[in-house]
Request: fold
Amino acid sequence: MKLPNLLGTKNGRLSAFFFLYMTEGIPLGFAAIAVATQLRRMGVGPAEIGAFVAAFYLPWAFKWAFGPLVDVFRSQRFGHRRAWIIGTQLMMAATLAVLIFLKLPEQLALFTAILLVHNSFAAIQDVAIDSLACNVLHENERGLANGLMFAGAAIGQAVGGSGVLFLIPYLGFQSSFIFVALCILAVTGLVVLPMKEALVQASAETVQKAGSGLRQAGAEMRDFAVAAFRSFLGTRGAFVGVFFALLPAGAMSLSLALQSNLSVELGLNDDQVAWLQLASTVSSAVAMVIGGILSDHFGRRRVLTIFIALMIVPVLYLMVELLKAGYVMPRQPGSGGPAVPQALVTALWLATISFNIFMGLMYGVRSALFMDVTNPRVAATQFTAYMALMNVAIAYTATWQGLAIEAWGYPVTLAVDAVFGLVGLALLPWMKKPASEAEQIGDAHAAGRASRSALGLGILCLAWLPFWTWRAETGSAEAIFNTFFTLVFVVAALFMLAGREVLGAQAGAALRRACLWLAPLLLALYLRKYLDVLGAWATPALHGLAQGLIYAVPMAAGAVLLLLARRNWGALSETSAR
Reply:
């Protein structure tokens, strides 16, 4: 039987993107719910599970870097985006199949590394799917299509999370990886392969791009960085949006590994965890639609403030119930401790489902608010970057919460999460949509924002030196500080690469070269976590060199950023005026 080309009709296109987004949600639900639950049953600690979930979200934080690759490298035979979707889905299935040969929890590090590769392909697939949607969806289809895409992602998370947990008693944990891979391949065979993407005749410019390969991709990534740099600094709303994206929008603990850890410790079996996750996902999906409708009628910032405030209510409620029951520190599953009161299990259900309802109400409104402050001339660039920064917030939140649970216990972690989740509300008054098209392009204060940003990043890079010197004194908070400085180094590196292009000759040849060399070295500082491993096999001289670079690179970067703060950024304001 010949399968239809779903891109040929309206209903077919809507169905196609629903199922394509399902393949994006499946691995997220699989890792954050199913795998996290099983790891806790195996005795893996909350800190390790938090780091595992954080690593899984990292590729989504940098998915903007894959855009130029998808744009430049194309197939005339299989279709431009269709070829990328087929290739990434096959690699997603292959990496999942490899996991069946690993033994957990002994090989957790290798398991995490392979899933990181898997999710990198998932992030590339997301870029290709969005690109395909922009090119084949008709204008009057895009609203409904976007709603169905988010619904598909939610259903995918339920399949990867609840579905796997339901099947584990019958298939076993390791065999469930094959089930997830087959779900992805089913979409490949039934939806993607029958697609007929319109072939674009390669122009001379396209051929030239393809011929230059990675060099062209690198040039487009540079153009992306410059465009994003200008857009973020162009207006106050866009600039504040960077910090709003980097902060959690409300409490997040009941949507990450904390909830999975606690479910296992309170005695829920796999079926019960699966039903809890399924009920939460469906409730959240319905709430997303309702939240969008309310924001259209009553204003985004007003309803977003209410929704974010409501998100902390179930978190604080669960905190109080845990304190009442005397359940503070994490316990090993099956350790034979005091019996868990049924009221505490009920409280977990009520808190998790109500939290997901409020989070669903918030979710779509927050994305719409970012669209409001985005410059329409660089919408794809700027909006994609905001979404990437939101994934950074998820990654570092999962990391610190896993560490905090082991250091402070569940109630304190929930309290800190609730308080920190409200910090972003202070920025909402500045997240205003520009009143006119001229203001949307930029304002006269862009140069000042660039200078202050360089100054702030420079000071933060220099603050690394005392932290690293006395890091042992920070105790269990060391990993949280490390996560914060990793984020500082990434932002500083991108700032220097884009800033040198914007300033041009005004930066000076020496400063431009310093930015070019220091940026990749700042990114490489992420490898400092392997310093002890290096010391075990490297010569003392090589180990000493690595230790010296950990001090020298941030110090040099801080000095360069302080010099950039003194440069004339007037080109930004002049460009905005034009």
